[in-house]
Design brief:
By secondary structure, this protein is mainly alpha-helical. It is 43% helix and 4% strand. Bound molecules: heme C (2 copies).
């Protein structure tokens, strides 16, 4: 009897070890898989003051790079979710332990537009599927701005998945591989930055509203543990929101009920868009308009559960 029990325990232990080995090797294969970006466009960069200022606005507000890479873009730990994993935005400056000095123009484009790291593997969590929609004009302004950032000497630990994260990745339940989510979106040269439905949707796309609140802004659950649903934004006018309440929520994080929004909603970055009244008006216009969304825009965007804070 005792012997049978021993053999039984041994079998269970072997099975568990086998499973662990399988999870680690399959997930490592997925994490290290090499990707090649389509032929990169030849882009030219300029350090013109107006261009750098647009680049700064993209990095700190519209694209909310600062949310994950730190206010000085010198890197920060974004999310430490124990067994799920730890996500840190690396130091993007040329300072000590920063990668800014190492990246070529092609590396910057591959990371931002295709979610591929300079090592060729997929970036974790980085929402490149949104940034793939940036126009050439905005992409180059953003990169030009990042390349001239003041150096910050800060070492952040590399992002990694824990056992639970790896298991979910293997089970295809954790869509955190940026390169897998990006579609090859045609690179538009430029977009007219004027209040228009087209520009509103551009903003709602590249700033991630359509990532968390879903492609058609009708809302849905978030991946991050304990995070509330991303609400439906298309029915806001029916729910009694007006533009003032909307602007207040975006700028201060305070909902009409007086409650503060969960910090997963990145109002601190996105709310700065309100400094530029025109940008904000187009966004509200897009959201408050009825939801017969342009087919073309819908088709160019792959609906997926929110990747950002997963
Ligand atoms: C939701 C969080 C998040 C946001 C927002 C974000 N990043 Fe990242 N980014 C990351 C993480 C995490 C990594 C490291 C991933 C890894 O090591 O697998 C990363 C890596 C990078 C890299 C490194 C590429 C390499 O070769 O190693 C670059 C460049 C980068 N991000 C640029 C940007 C820019 C520019 C923006 C804004 C337009 C931005 N990121 C917004 C999370 C984010
Ligand atoms: C990283 C995910 C994420 C992104 C990106 C994001 N949101 Fe949100 N948003 C949320 C979540 C989650 C909530 C719910 C917060 C709560 O209930 O505390 C929310 C709440 C809101 C609310 C309050 C709605 C209500 O009915 O209570 C508004 C308005 C809003 N978001 C607008 C936007 C806009 C506009 C953008 C793009 C410029 C945006 N959000 C981008 C996740 C996100």
């Amino acid at each position: 009897m005792k012997r049978k029990l021993k053999i039984g325990t041994l079998l269970v232990v072997c099975l568990l070890l086998g499973m662990l080995v399988a999870i680690y090797s399959i997930s490592s294969y997925q994490l290290n898989k090499q990707y090649t970006a389509p032929l990169l466009p030849a882009l030219s960069f300029s350090n013109d003051a107006a261009i750098l200022s647009r680049g700064k606005h993209l990095a700190t507000s519209i694209g909310n790079c600062t949310n994950c890479h730190g206010n000085d873009l010198g890197g920060k730990i974004y999310l430490d979710a124990g067994l799920l994993g730890m996500v840190a935005g690396p130091n993007l400056t040329r300072g000590k332990a920063g990668i800014g000095g190492k990246l070529t123009d092609a590396d910057w484009i591959r990371a931002i537009r295709y979610g591929i790291s300079h090592k060729g593997s997929s970036l974790l969590v980085m929402p490149a599927e949104m940034y793939a929609h940036l126009t050439a004009e905005d992409l180059t302004a953003l990169i030009a701005y990042l390349k001239q950032l003041p150096p910050v000497d800060r070492q952040v630990p590399p992002s990694q998945l824990g056992l639970l994260g790896r298991t979910l990745l293997v089970l295809d339940k954790l869509p955190v591989l940026a390169a897998e989510k990006v579609k090859d979106i045609p690179l538009k040269k430029t977009i007219v930055r004027a209040p228009s439905r087209e520009y509103g949707f551009y903003l709602a796309t590249v700033s991630g509203c359509r990532s968390c609140h879903r492609a058609n802004l009708t809302g849905g659950p978030m991946q991050a543990h304990g995070a509330p649903l991303a609400p439906n934004l298309t029915s806001m006018s029916r729910k009694g929101w007006n533009k003032q309440a909307f602007l207040r929520a975006m700028r201060t994080g305070i909902l009409p009920s007086g409650k503060s929004m969960h910090p997963i909603m990145p109002w601190q970055q996105l709310g700065q868009m309100s400094r530029n009244r025109m940008l904000f008006d187009t966004l509200t216009q897009a959201i408050f308009m009825d939801h017969s969304i342009s087919k073309q825009i819908m088709n160019s965007y792959r609906e997926s559960i929110c990747q950002i804070n997963s």
